[in-house]
Amino acid sequence: MTSDFRIPDLEIDEIDKKILSILHENSRTSYTDIGKQLDLSRVAIQARINGMVEQGVIEKFTTVINPAKIGFHVSAFFNVEVEPQYLEQVAEQLASDPAVTSLYHMTGPSKLHMHGIFSNNQEMEKFLTKKLYPLTGVVSVDSQLLINRYKSRMGMKL
Fold it and tell me: Within a 10 A sphere around the Cβ of 44, how many other Cβ atoms?
């Protein structure tokens, strides 16, 4: 006998929004410290965070790394037009490449928007000529180099 048990959608209240805001600023903030800020117990905070993780509200806890500090000095955005029948195949191949930091299917039948980081221009050129351009189905590639980062989303801020 199979179970039709389903965890109900989590209602996000003002306390959860405050917890998310604190975690967004520093995901290493302890349950105890969050509890002190919100006048709640560590156990209550832990239960709320665990609930948000289980419901997929919090997808993961991560570390934001400054690419330039570890040798990646070229940051570029690419708009890749792909023949529709090859879209999924191209997306899978690009998503598996370590240089690709984000990849989105944009409006239009076959547009991919991608961000990549490279140690230098030669590495980016090698990525383009050896990996991206030869992919079956790629019709055109438009690229822009990042000059200055003023804001980076890094998750949704409430």
Answer: 16
* Calpha distance 155→158 (Å, rounded): 10
- Tell me the pTM: 0.74
Residue 143 tokens, joined:
């690229």
pLDDT digits (tens, 9 = 90+) for 93-129: 999 999 999 999 998 778 999 999 999 999 999 999 9
Domains and CATH numbers, the chain: 14-54 (1.10.10.10), 67-145 (3.30.70.920)
Q: In what order do the strands lie in the sheet with 138-145?
A: 100-106, 111-118, 74-82, 138-145
Please, what is the Cα angle at 146 between 112 and 101, to 5 degrees?
45
* Three-state SS sequence of the chain: CCCCCCCCCCCCCHHHHHHHHHHHHCCCCCHHHHHHHHCCCHHHHHHHHHHHHHCCCCCCCCCCCCHHHHCCCEEEEEEEEECHHHHHHHHHHHHCCCCEEEEEEECCCCEEEEEEEECCHHHHHHHHHHHHCCCCCEEEEEEEECCCCCCCCCCCCC
